[in-house]
Each structure stands twice: as structure tokens, then as C-alpha cells.
Amino acid sequence: MPHRAQRWVIHLVTLLLMLGVVAVPATEVATIKVLRGTVSVERNGQILPGKLGLALEVADQVVTGVDSAIGITFQDNSLLSLGPNSRLTVDRFQFNSTTHEGAFETSLKQGKLAVISGKIAKHREDAMKVRTPASIIGVRGTEFVVEAAARR
Amino acid sequence: MRGLVSATIVFTAALAGCANEPTDRLILLPGANGKVGRVGVSASGAVPTVIDQAYGAATINPSGKIVQKTAERSEVQHDFGSTLDALPPRPISHTLYFENDSDILTSASAVEAQAILAEIAARPVADIVVIGHTDTMGDASYNDALSLQRAEKLRKLLIELGGDPRRISAAGRGERELLAPTSDEAPEPRNRRAEISVR
Predict the structure, then answer these.
(1) What is this structure's pTM?
(2) Using only C-alpha atoms, what is the Rg of chain A?
(3) Of A133, A43, A39, nearest in space to A86 by CA
(4) Would an 8 Å CB–CB cutoff place A8 in contact with chain B?
């Protein structure tokens, strides 16, 4: 009986590893390309220090400190940057690199954001959305800046 | 009495202004090529307010009121300068051409290549994809191999110039994606090429 139980554990671990291996490249949606000051990435309740080259995933929250900034390039060539004391979550990112169909949603919880939209917004109006605490911005292929004031 | 009235006005102004109210703000910028895009701003599920002029701006207060304005260029620089400075370099792509049935660059492309490849390799954390192509001379499987060889040659060059091998991929598309469409077995210099995309 213990043998059988052990075998099950091994099968389960193997399966999880396989899922993990398959899942890793698919979940990377962007890369940190520019980094100034103190930046962290909150992922699944953990806080990772921001590093050049770090891959971002859906549901990550990027947080910048005082006098800090970060520049991120997404897989559809969208470019985003955050200024100091800012928080941004990546809510959704789907992109078909052949057809350029996709959906891209982020939320600026606080601070300053600059956006140069990429292939997703170019392919279809409003496929890219940026939320602020008070509004939803539907992007129609463009460059813009947004500020979300700090909430008390 | 007069004192009370004045006090009330100041208080109201403070409420209506942005002193206490966490107001969100958006400013549309002209694109790199001078072209201005569009955004639609909506609050509380209302019909979006469309902004499509350079430096067109909107403020949105917590109750969902949207006020349109025009921002000054100096205001953008003052308030968003350090944010804009952190934008990553724009993705670029280049095409380089090869000699007939060879992974050697044409002399014109070889001259261009030095500057292009050095600039690419110097970009921080650049993700590079090199895709090789051929013309329609020779059979398809031979051209698959030749196109990959062309891409690999450039990949090697980029690594020699300091590019990160883990971030540079090479692939061959053989004679499937002709830049200049031709019949089969047609020599065509424009099709003997590799495209380098940098993100």
C-alpha cells in the first residue's frame, strides 16, 4: 500500500511539473526593459524585486517607489511606463501574434502611466483598455499619459 | 455676515477644485510620426467621451464627471517627464540581403549591417527575432536549410556584438514568404534576405 501511495505522489508531481513547464512560457506577457529606483512586482501574494529582463504575468501588480520609474514592453509591442509612487495591475493579456487579435486590460490604481499602444489596439478599437479608479479608457491606437490621484 | 459668505466661497472652491478630490486625468499625445490617435474615456458606464486632438485632455472626478480641456506641452513635460523618459525604446525591424545561394551579406547590406547590428545589440534587454528567407531557386527543403543558415549567421553576429543569446532566436521560412512574388525557379535578389525584429 505505501508503494502505491508513493507512486501516486510521483505521478502527481510529474503531472504538476509538466503543467508548470508548459505554463511558464504562455504566462509571460511582458518584459521589464527600463528600471529606475525601487520597483517591485507583487505576484500571488509574494513580492519580487523589479529587475531588468524580468518577465511579467497576468495578475501581476507593479509598484514603484519615490523617484522611481519602470518601462515595460508587452508582446504586442505596446510600451508602458510608470512614474514614481505608482501602482498598475495587468488584468488581462491575450494576443495572437499571427492575426494580432487580442485583449489587453490594465488598471492604474495610483500614480502616473504613459502608454504607446501596440498591435492589439491597432487591430481592433477598444481591445485595449486602461482603468483608473474613476474611469475606463478605451484605446484606439495612440500615445497618451494618465494620472490616477492617490485615494485616501 | 460678509466674513461668513467669503468663507463659504473658499470652502466650495476647495471642494470643487482638486485640492481634496482625487481626480484622474488623461492627456492624449501626438504620435512619433505626428499622427494623433484616439481614446474614449467613460465613467459610470456612460457613453465614452472621445478625445482625438493632440494634447486633448480630460479630468474625471470620483462621481464620474468628465471635463475636457487642452493641456500645455509644458504641463506634460512637468508632470509626466520622468514617466515618459522611462518608456522602453520603440520596437524596430530591419531587412538585410544576401548573395545568391549564400549566407554572405551583399556588399551594400554588409555596410549597413555594422551600424544596425551594433545598435540592436546595445539596446537594453533587447528581444530579437531573426527570420531568414530565400528566393525560389532550388527545391523547397534546400531553401528551408539555407534560410535558417542565413538567420543563424546574423544571430551569431549579434551575439558576438554583445547580444544576449537567450534573447535572440533564429528561424528560416525558406521560399514561403517572398518579398517580391515570383514564379518557381526565379532568381530574385530582394527575396534573399533576413528580417531582424527587435522588441
Answers:
(1) 0.82
(2) 18
(3) A39
(4) no
Report CB contact under 8 Å: A147, B80. yes
Q: How do the pLDDT tens digits run along chain B, 199 residues long?
A: 333 332 223 333 333 444 557 899 999 999 888 888 999 999 978 899 999 999 999 999 999 899 999 999 999 999 999 999 999 999 999 999 999 999 999 999 999 998 888 888 878 899 999 999 999 999 999 999 999 999 999 999 999 988 899 999 999 999 999 999 999 999 999 999 999 999 9
> Would residue A12 count as lying in a domain?
no
Beta bridge partners of B91: none
Q: What is the DSSP letter of B98?
A: B
B23 touches chain A (CB under 8 A): yes
Which residues of chain B does A146 touch, with a Cβ-Cβ cutoff of 8 Å?
24-27
CATH number of this structure's domain B92-198, picked from the four choices 3.40.50.300, 3.10.560.10, 3.30.1330.60, 3.40.1190.20: 3.30.1330.60
When divided into structural domains, chain A yields a total of 1
